[in-house]
Specification:
The structure is a single chain. By secondary structure, the chain is of the alpha/beta class. The protein has one domain (7-146, 223-337). 41% of the residues lie in helices and 14% in strands. The chain has helices at residues 7-77, 90-94, 131-141, 150-164, 180-184, 211-215, 242-248, 258-267, 286-295; strands at 105-112, 117-118, 227-228, 235-236, 296-297, 302-311, 314-325, 328-336. The chain has a 4-stranded antiparallel β-sheet.
């Protein structure tokens, strides 16, 4: 007779295997359930974030449109623009925003691009230098805050001219510029722009333009905040920042009077319609008056609006450039971040 396995022992072993299998199946179901629950919670959170993101974009756009309304109202009330008006006061623009929404708020800020040096006016319609704008930009780049020597400043300005004019002729004497032949010879080549700037960031690839010069660092400011691609070439002396005024000082204001002018425009809140009445400007030479007429204004046309929508730790930003004319406001560019 052969060896036989007792039936009871076999059944007992089978029950043990069944128990193990049951435990494994239950463990798998629990793991799948937990994973499904995690996916469901993530989907719900993503949906909530999307909902809040859409809501915040609407809040930020409301702040942008509110700033547009303030600019339009200001145009109806006065043809003179100063930093004492509602559009220049963030508290006026944003102070009551939390009361406008059941959830969220916005912070809006308007910057005057007419108070900046306007790069596209560096050249005339025929592609030749606008010498007044050239001298102003060279003077600006030579300010101690940027630490550039005259030769370096001249070369950068020449390179900017070549970057925005339509030809491929390198600007020379004094200094030198850069056209397609230079940019195509780089390790990572690219084409010369050869057309006006759309955004001030379009200057970044220009020969001689460094990250520190454009953006600044902890010790020195960047030039980007003082420049604009928009405008007719005239700078609003009532809204220009101190470094822009310093660049104007050689031709318009005596260097020692820049601080006096800043104090004057701070105190004379309602008497800035004619800057030539300011002591020291009334006795300008004819050459200075000619430069003043071609460089200075007290009216602003181009503005940058930045509106941030907030809810808790979430932020959505809307930025845009608007042109204000007699016919109203025209949005030139728009970006949602």
């Amino acid at each position: 007779m052969g060896y036989r396995i007792p039936i009871r022992k076999f059944l007992k072993d089978d029950r043990g295997v069944a128990l193990i299998l049951t435990i494994l199946v239950i463990s798998l179901i629990v793991a799948l359930t937990l994973q499904f629950n995690t996916f469901t919670r993530c989907d719900l959170q993503a949906a909530a974030n999307m909902r809040d993101g859409i809501r915040l974009r609407c809040v930020a756009r409301s702040g942008f449109n509110y700033a547009l309304g303030v600019l339009a109202k200001d145009k109806l009330e006065s043809s003179i623009d100063t930093l004492h008006e509602d559009w220049a006061d963030p508290e006026t623009l944003s102070g009551n925003s939390a009361a406008m929404f059941s959830e969220g708020r916005f912070e809006a800020k308007v910057s005057d691009h007419s108070g900046r040096i306007q790069i596209n006016k560096l050249i005339k319609s025929d592609g030749t230098y606008n010498n007044v704008q050239r001298d102003l930009l060279i003077k600006f780049l030579q300010l101690p805050e940027f630490g550039l020597e005259e030769g370096t400043a001249v070369n950068i300005v020449n390179a900017i001219k070549d970057w925005i004019d339509s030809d491929n002729d390198v600007t020379e004497g004094p200094g030198y510029g850069a056209e397609n032949s230079y940019y195509q010879g780089l390790e990572n080549p690219y084409a010369c722009r050869n057309r006006p700037l759309d955004y001030i960031e379009d200057l970044i690839p220009v020969r001689g333009m460094t990250n520190n010069l454009f953006h600044g660092n902890g010790e020195k400011p960047g030039i980007s905040r003082y420049l604009s691609p928009h405008g007719d070439g005239k700078i609003n002396i009532n809204t220009a920042e101190p470094l822009v005024l310093k660049a104007l000082s050689e031709y318009i204001l005596d260097q020692d009077r820049v601080e006096d002018w800043l104090e004057y425009r701070e105190n004379k809140k309602n008497d800035l319609s004619d800057y030539k009445k300011y002591p020291g400007l009334s006795d300008m030479t004819q050459e200075q008056k000619n430069r003043a007429n071609s460089l200075l204004t007290t009216m602003s046309t181009y503005f940058e609006i930045r509106s941030d929508g907030f809810k808790g730790s979430m932020i959505k930003r809307v930025t845009g450039i608007t042109e204000r004319t007699g016919a109203g406001l025209q949005i030139l560019s728009w970006k949602v971040e």
